[in-house]
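Cross-posted from the bioinformatics board.
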Amino acid sequence: MLRKLIKYEWKDVYKVGLLLVGALALATLVGFLATQTPMWSELFGESGSQMNDLSESLLWIVGFFAFFLYTMMLMGVVYGIFIYLTVHFYKTMYTDEGYLLHTLPVTKHQILISKILVSSLWVYIIYIAMLLSLAIFALGFVGGVTSSTFPELLQQIAVFLESVWPEMLREMGPDGVSLLIHYAGSMGLLMLLGIPSGLLCIFGATSLGQLFPKHRVLMSILCYAGIMIAEAMITGILGSVISAAAIMGASAVESFSLGLHSLAIRYDVSLFIHLLMAVGLYMVSYYVTSRKLNMD
Amino acid sequence: MNELLEITELTKSYDEKHVAVNNISLKLPKGKIIGLLGPNGSGKTTLIKMLNGLLVPTRGSIKINGQPVGVETKAHVAYLPDRTYLTGGQSINRILNYFSDFYEDFSREKALEMLKSLDIDPACRMRTLSKGTKEKVQLILVMSRNADLYVLDEPIAGVDPAARDYILRTIINNYNPAATILISTHLIGDIEKVLDEVIFLRNGQLILYTSVDNIREQQGKSVDAYFREVFAC
């Protein structure tokens, strides 16, 4: 049944998901065109800033607005997917549409898991599309400033990495490399698990709001804000304690290295707390849908 | 065992002042058409929602075929809500696929046959249909199941008399004879002729559960007339 639920959940969501990917493609085109205006080369290129005539001024304005539009569209798509998925979750779970879902011969775990999986997949897709968009923009930007062609740019990046990377690793030493791996691992996990756990927090807050007799949508938003504040406070306090404990009594040179290590540990702490909150809020969603469901 | 539904000391209260269903105990047999009757606010819809797991009882228990409300019972209960719950953007075909996928007892052929008899194109999207047609589509979906218990909440409210006749005909001609149908309605006169038994609810309490023949014999009245007498304002 889980597979069937996932199939229909995907069918429900994919149109809006594709629409947002399309919007992102359009935004990327706008952003890329913005990088091709003379504004960037004049601001960051070797020639310096100079506006010679009216047409160039107009290109500046167009370039600026295209860049502005690009950033706005990018933000809109990222926030848009979260807003859409939250509204979709709320509507299919707690409004009239939920009559169908909650009378299916499936468990509440299956319903929740199908929603989390499909929603997470769409956020991953949007994030990957966003990274591609940023890469295209960055390449366009560097190309606009340096007047290099696209293959030349890629070659320059490869050469740069080839020459700098081994030297950088040598300079860092074994401790530095292990710290880098620690950072990269923590960041990677945070990015990978942060999406489903973030969605679990949003869905949990939406479910918590259903426990109130009135103004359930407003209460859901307030619950989410409360959860985020609580998480930030716990992470901040625990992280500070860990950092302080790590560098206490160490010399200035040692404390720099230990400080960097404790920073990496803080990432781990925040990831751990985030995952803990996500598990807790999944249980809240399960509890509300199985024990406290009140379909008006 | 001829019992299909067993309700024991069932209570649903939203707060201390508002008790929607108050300590109802009831056993319903298989193979009957039962009217769930009562004025507005008597607890009919609340009771029905609890049977379908859309509301969690405050106290008491419900057993359908000996099972508490859950995955097992939902596979054997066909429920028609008192509202349109199918989203406008989806086509009837997609909804048919949905029902086929999730309910083993759903007959797609039967549903298509009924849709055809009403000249409803399965390719149509729900949003393009009138309110009455939407209600008919929902009823067709429910009656195309070979369920043990059909729970129909106000199936004939808000539709014209011709549509009412169609709906009643559809119910009578398509239900599994070994199953029980629980119909909630205000329009007693329209459905009286198909009922075997009736349940009267007032202020969330069970005040009568008897057969239609009993009312006719003992009271010398139709169910409609007796209902008006019992619930006279």
